[in-house]
Amino acid sequence: MKATDIQSLIDFISKAGLDEVSIETENLKLSVKRYSQITNVAPANIINSTPVYIPPVQAQVSAPAQTQAETKEVAKEAKLDTSNLLTIKSPMIGTFYRTPTPDSPVFVNVGDDVKSGQVVCIIEAMKLFNEIESEVAGKIVKVLVENATPVEYDQPLFLVEPK
Fold it and tell me: pTM of this prediction?
């Protein structure tokens, strides 16, 4: 079974809404489970794949005292009072996108009000696009990451003035 065949099968299973599928042939044993790691096991090698579905991820929020020195430095340069600002951080490693598609408007701009649960960006990891939702309500004060750039786990993405 080729990698493209496996990807097509995973896409079909995802669209069908199945939670678990197991396929076994002479040369391949394939087990796909929703919300867990998928493992494709062949006699000669082991291939690890990504989950079939990843629900929207809640972005981590921390108080300014717990933010990285980099965030404080950016806030200082922008002459912002960090005593009351919260940071929306990346919950994963991947590529940060401010828009859902290249032709779409950005999710949030500086000065926009955000609600808890509102999508603020997308982080692409292993060809899966994960919507990142805000955990706080407030006003976006600063966007700390450029569009289409790599981000690390726990990296500050936005500064938010809580309401």
Answer: 0.53
